[in-house]
Amino acid sequence: MHPAPSIIVFTVLSGLGLGLVFWLGLDLGPDWGAWRWVACALALVLAGGGGVASVGHLQNPKNAWRAFSQWRSSWLSREGCLMVAALGLFALYAALWCLADLRLWGLGLLAAGFALATVYATAMIYAQLKTVPRWHLTPTPCLFLASALVGGLLAFGAARGVTGAGFPTGAAFLALLVAAGIAVWWQTAAAGARRIAAGSSMETATGLGSIGRVRPFEPPHTGPNYLLREMAHVVARRRAYQIRLIGAVLGFAVPLLFTLLAWVAGDWALVPAFLSHVLGMLALRWLFFAEAEHVQALYYGAR
Amino acid sequence: MTSLPKTTEKKLGLVIDLDICVGCHACAVACKEWNTGAYGAPLSDQDAYGAEPEGTWLNRIHSYEVTPREGAAQIVHFPKSCLHCEDAPCVTVCPTGASYKRQADGIVLVNEDACMGCGLCAWACPYGAREMDAAAGVMKKCTLCVDRIYNENLAEEDRVPACVRTCPANARHFGDFADPDSEVSRMSAARGGMALMPEQETKPVNRYLPPRPKDGAGAPVRLAELAEPEAKGFLGWLDKALARLG
Questions:
Q1: What is the mean pLDDT of each run of 10 residues along chain B (246 residues)?
Q2: For the domain B12-209, what is the CATH code?
Q3: Contact between A220 and B128 using a beta-carbon 8 Å cutoff
Q4: Any B CB within 8 A of A235 CB
Q5: Which overall architecture, per CATH, does domain A5-213+224-300 show?
Q6: How many CB pairs under 8 A join A and B?
């Protein structure tokens, strides 16, 4: 699948922002101090910025408002509705908290719930697609939820670290370990989810398997086209191992070390932990798209 | 609108006879010609006269080589367009309500006035039947020539999809699969009409008729064997003796 930068930036940033909304909405952390400004602004900028990036993916954005209409059937529509609800509620919660010193826990819980539901809807946009066996997996929503929660927790810690509000770094350490475990779970499932394992091959695609083995002889067109660009994108797949290594090191190993460092050297170390984690997640999310194989590429004999 | 109808009154679709198709691409050309001036935005081309021309097509013709366990390989030309699935995954993923399946005849259409060009429907389709038009920014797909088949301004014989009307080999047929006595239903039943990628559980309406078994083509002639030098003397006698053993 084509790893569109707008979708990668959208899913990673909005995931982080919504994860942060979740932790802030749970009423965690001190009620007063400068850190709340940093944390609330960060949550809104990350999630909102991600939302704006997603519009960059649309070819006809003037109809984007219609995407709020089909929540009964479409995960993409549900994602849009839930995102607006989560950020709307959180903006109100943050405004009352920061400007009027009023931290309404009920409103926070509601925003936190909508934030998690939004991340789940984002994941289901991919997990629902039977046409991409690598995404059509039980661990896919778990991967998106874990990424959002641990990224949000690191952002939460970083915001408290820079403003000296204190943060239990052990929680971040544990969360990183759990998220790394879920990433390995997804990776193991995805490695086994080849198109042939899902029962699709050039033989089933053409129906000609009853005669014999099928091989592409001549493609329908000599130039590129939308289908090949979007569904048979193979750029840099051969460097997948190296990119996965970078993702694992930046996304999990380096942040784990920095959270340990924060324990002895001070909470400021959560800032590099957070930044490194974001870079690692961008690399892994790029692979999530670039390594995914679509069954319709079988018609071209392509991966 | 993006929920699928439980059943449709008719199931309009195509039969494509892979035994007859000669791979001339006339159906694709006729499709492009009709649909660029008819329903919705034109089917645009990019860099049409340049080094890497490309464009939007609703029908594309692949060619495959099929090699049986025994006997000669054969070439099969394979036109591919929207199969107007009963459980069309492209419809339910649509966030704007632009994609829909008609209850009256089962045709899957895109309301381009509502499409935001997110491309998720093309991801959901196992067949590569939907293409984003690069100029209009909306999703294009086969309409089964909905503006021909009911068009009373056309002569009756023209009230079929452009691809069917133009096919010089008569490899394409149009009709109602909900009617077991229709021509397409009977053809499909008689020849073992195939649904593509049944494992995707999309219940496609269109059917492909498999190539008929080859008669008498047998194994390919091995020219190298004919050019082998004839053995003489003792070896020649041995060769003949061995051949007599059967």
A1: 86 97 97 92 94 94 94 93 97 96 96 96 97 96 96 96 97 97 97 96 97 74 77 85 83
A2: 3.30.70.20
A3: no
A4: no
A5: Up-down Bundle (1.20)
A6: 193
